[in-house]
Amino acid sequence: MAEKKVSDLLPFWKDQYQKGRVALDRKNYDYAMMIFCQLLDQEPGCLDCREALRVTQFRKAEETGQRSFFKKAFGMTGDLAHLSKARMILKSNPGEAMSALEQILNKDPQNVSAHQMMADAALSAGYVRTALISLELLFNKLGQRDMAMARKLADVYAQAGQPGKAEEIYAQLVNENPDNLDLIQALKDVSASRTMKEGGYETASEGGTYRDALKSEDESKRLEQESRLVQTSDSSEAIIKNLEDKVAAEPTSLRWWRALADQYLRIKEYEKALSAYESLKALLSVSDPQLSMNILKVKLRILDSQLASMDPQDPAQTEKIAELQKQRAEVEMAEVESLSEANPTDMIILFDLASLYFKNGKLGKAIQALQKTQNYPGKKIPSLLLLGQCFAQRKMYDLAVRAYSNALADKKSMDEEKKELLYLLGITYEMMGKKEEAIEHFKLIYEVDIDYRDVAAHVDAYYSENE
Known about the structure:
Blueprint: H1 11-25, H2 29-42, H3 47-64, H4 69-89, H5 94-107, H6 112-125, H7 128-141, H8 147-159, H9 163-176, H10 181-196, H11 209-214, H12 217-227, H13 233-249, H14 254-266, H15 270-283, H16 289-308, H17 315-342, H18 347-359, H19 363-373, H20 380-393, H21 397-408, H22 416-431, H23 435-446, H24 455-465
Helix pairs in contact: 1-2, 2-3, 2-5, 4-5, 5-6, 6-7, 7-8, 8-9, 9-10, 10-16, 13-14, 14-15, 15-16, 16-17, 17-18, 18-19, 19-20, 20-21, 20-22, 21-22, 22-23, 23-24
């Protein structure tokens, strides 16, 4: 089941949510909790409401102080009943189990058992970000920092599309347990996953909305500023100064070194970024594929900036430009080959290497690599697409057709990737002299996107010939 925002709710429940927020602002915590719980009974996947309820529970606990011994003892029977009920129905009815657990958290927002079960119920329902609310609390606030909890939090970060945070936890675990092969493999897997995320950069300041809500207003503003993609020079200078101070105070902190390096990269201080990434690499006891890729990116950007500063129209600079271009290609190829050799089971790195081989005309090596990566689910279709192009360049058109067709078998929606597969398949059929097969594939694109490449010219020419 998908989690929802308040904007996705029916008008009545949107109004109820706003009433709850007003009650929270007025410190009418009991009324706010009642409204939020009623809303969550109807819409258990409403993440905004769940976060607001958790903030309400903690604010009430902080302002009213700890319950007396007698109140705690009196509430234990009810808490156990709610826990038992939640445990019994956790798999069959996770939404109802979550409702029972909120009754406990309304009285005791630091109840470890309730949060552990809340995370399990949320995951059972498919509410990954809801599970993160409780897991982050357990790990960061409630002292549950054993290896099992750390791994669970890291795994859920990965499920939530935050592989950078998962990678940070696993890197720390590996540093603490350098001989644990299971942890080392888990770190490699999550590092590979991080490369699949566009941009691939996650600052240490980025956090869940729940944590932001509990922090002071000034701290929240600072965190928001650090995570903003567009920054003024003044704000960037302040952020970097803050991170440099943290690195100086905690020189072995992976978190702050990575954040500082990412920030240098963001403002195009490439030499400083490279130095920071290499300092981070020196702290790690194992190979980190994502970090190695970041170092490569910075090296390439340094060379790109040198190329950008040169005038290709100036004959005096022609030789230097050619030399830099050659150096760039050699650095990229050598670094990725070395990274792949160090991580032979990492199919994402191998796919990047195959793409480089193709780009540099090393079709045999590209085909050999792609025949392996096509079996990796995350790179199956891109591998088949590139494999088809390799075969087509070698004029092995029947093999190219097979590769494109195999990729299309897994494509349901007409996205850009499917259009490219159809187009290349059409071009390949044309090269084989099979005009009817070619035009059928061009038509499929023409029906939904007449402006795609030169599809309109192919289709118009076909109909003109057959008038």
